[in-house]
User: What shape does this take?
Amino acid sequence: MDADTPKPSINLAQHELDKARADWSAEKVRKAQREGEVNWVYPGDKPTPDPAR
Assistant: This one.
């Protein structure tokens, strides 16, 4: 290895990985909401929120 050759930082790679995971999760939630597959569970003492909100 040459000391003058720039190498990508491990922190940069981890940041990119975290960003990709967040994007993937957000897209998965959006897709599920579009398809009506999300059934949120609420505690028994809390009323289910108004779907118009």
Helices lie at 10-35. The mean pLDDT is 76.
